[in-house]
Structures are given as structure tokens and as C-alpha cells.
Design goal:
- It is built from ten helices and nine strands.
- The protein is an alpha/beta fold.
- Strands 1, 2, 3, 4, 5, 6, 7, 8 and 9 form a nine-stranded mixed β-sheet that branches.
- Strand 2, helix 2 and strand 3 form a beta-alpha-beta unit.
- The chain starts with a strand and ends with a strand.
Length: 293
């Protein structure tokens, strides 16, 4: 999958794709994260990823000095376990996979989802995000209830998941994971550092992944402040939908970003979820990648 560039003179570094997915997640960029990383500055200090999600870009980059964070505590619990105690992460998955084997896919899923909704935690979320429909982790706005139904696919075996954990643990050994609001993460970045932002999308993710209270305008202000401090910032955000017929308009200040690049994501998993699994020939979407440098 290739990026569609608005500028012919875009210079890319050579980055090998990293295809091993740890978490299924809405907006997961595993398939084309190498294209994003290829557009990072050739040299930078500490790498920051304040909207961690599936960590696809982080895992592809495998940085030697990094700070990764998210405001969603159960998700951060998963990443901290990966870094600090990967054997425990494997155990979390195995215990719930055994429930799946004993009770059957849907009954086990409903039981684990009920456990999560009674007390949100990373151990339940780990299995749910790998078994829910398309990785579309969505929450009810009123109370944060996870409402995504069980997916049609079978979850990977504990043996397969264990190998994924080992692969990922080796790639994030130099990353500090924290439960943190993105604004506080921005404050930590210094001149020469790089921040990659993959926030909840404005046009498509208002009920997904705790995105209900997110303010794009406030994020843009944080990016402008970081740029003034000499921090490099890359932002993935809504691009086009309806197979390119509709460009998602956003309140982006002029001259804040030096480059705008569109990356083809294929057919929208969210629309497929909303329309009960139909093949959506006219629902190809693309990401907008904005760079301050």
C-alpha cells in the first residue's frame, strides 16, 4: 500500500514494514506504519506518542529513546505489562482463551465483556480488543460501557499470541509507558524531539476509544506551541472518505504544517461495522498526514 503524495519532491527514508499486530484497534496503522515512519526526520531526540492506541507506529519505529502514553488507563495497563512483565500479559490472554475454549466464543466474549464493564481493566480489554468486531472498540458516551459485539473471526491461539508478545517486547525495550493526558506529554518534549499524534478522528470516532471529549482545536494549539519550541510534530487525522469524493474539512491554521500527505487506508472498517459487514466498494478512506517540518 503506497502513500499518495501531494508533493513530488517528498523525501522518504527506507523503513522495513513491521506486520506483527499485537492489538486489534480501530484506526490501526500496522499495514502502512512504515510509510509514516519513512517520513519522520532523519535525526531527532526522544520520540513521543501521546495517543498510543495499537502502537503500530511505535512498534515499527522501535525507538532507542521514547515516551509513549495514553489517557485510557486499561490500555496503558496492557502496554506496561508488555514492557515490565510480558509473561503476565501472556497469562492474561491465556486465561481468557481457555474460557473461550470451554464456553464457546460468544458466551466467553459476553462474560469477559461483562467483567470489563463492571470494572474496566487491561486484562479483559486485551482479549476483547482481539475478539470484538473488527477491533472497533467503542464505548457508550453516557457511562463508558463497552458495547462492541463479538467478531466473526476466531481469536489467535495463546502460542501465537505469546510469539507476538516476545516480538513486541524486544521492540519497546527503550520505551517508557505512562497513563497521561496528551497535553502533559506535549509539555515534556524539547527542541529536536519528535511527537507523532494519532488522536480520535474528528469525522468518524466520536463514540470510539474514549474519544467523546477530545478537542481537535486544542490539539492544534498544543502542536503550534510545540513547533515554536523546536519540536517536530507529525499528525495523522481525517483525510478523505467515499473513495476520495469527500475531503474531510478541518480547522487547520495556515502555515502550521509544512506538508500534507494522504495515505490510502482501503475500505472503512467502521462503515463495514455500521452496515453489518457489507463489502463497501465506495467506502475507501484515506488518512491525512500533516508534518510541521
Amino acid at each position: 500500500m503506497q502513500a499518495a503524495f501531494l508533493f513530488e519532491d517528498v523525501v522518504q527514508n527506507q523503513v522495513e514494514p513491521f506486520k506483527t499486530q499485537l492489538l486489534k484497534w480501530i484506526g490501526n496503522k500496522q499495514r502502512f506504519a512504515h510509510e509514516i515512519v519513512a517520513l519522520f526526520p532523519e535525526r531527532f531526540g526522544t520520540y513521543f506518542e501521546p495517543f498510543l492506541g495499537s502502537g503500530a507506529v511505535l512498534g515499527t519505529l522501535a525507538p532507542t529513546q521514547a515516551f509513549a502514553s495514553d489517557a485510557f488507563l486499561p490500555l496503558v495497563e496492557i502496554w506496561k505489562a508488555l514492557k515490565e512483565n510480558p509473561a503476565e500479559l501472556k497469562r492474561w490472554y491465556n486465561v481468557r482463551w481457555q474460557m473461550h475454549e470451554k464456553l464457546g466464543k460468544r458466551e466467553a466474549y459476553e462474560s469477559i465483556r461483562a467483567s470489563y464493564n463492571s470494572s474496566p481493566n487491561g486484562a479483559d480489554l486485551l482479549f476483547l480488543c482481539r475478539t470484538c468486531y473488527g477491533g472497533v472498540v467503542r464505548f457508550r458516551k453516557s457511562d463508558g460501557y463497552m458495547s462492541t459485539p463479538c467478531g466473526v473471526h476466531e481469536p489467535v491461539s495463546p502460542e501465537s499470541f505469546s510469539l507476538r508478545v516476545d516480538t513486541w517486547a524486544a521492540r519497546v525495550g527503550h520505551v517508557e509507558f505512562m497513563h497521561l493526558d496528551y497535553r502533559h506529554a506535549f509539555e515534556r518534549a524539547k527542541a529536536g524531539d519528535l511527537i507523532y499524534c494519532d488522536p480520535p478522528y474528528v469525522h468518524s470516532q466520536s463514540i470510539l476509544y474514549k474519544g467523546q471529549g477530545f478537542s481537535f482545536t486544542e490539539l492544534v494549539q498544543q502542536i503550534a506551541d510545540a513547533k515554536r519550541r523546536g519540536v517536530y510534530v507529525a499528525l495523522s487525522i481525517d483525510g478523505t472518505k467515499k473513495s476520495g469524493e469527500v475531503k474531510c474539512e478541518l480547522p487547520i491554521p495556515e502555515k502550521l504544517f509544512a506538508r500534507e500527505i494522504f495515505v490510502n487506508l482501503g475500505r472503512s472498517m467502521l462503515r463495514r461495522f455500521q452496515m453489518e459487514g457489507e463489502t463497501l466498494e465506495n467506502e475507501v478512506v484515506s488518512d491525512r498526514l500533516l508534518l510541521t517540518y
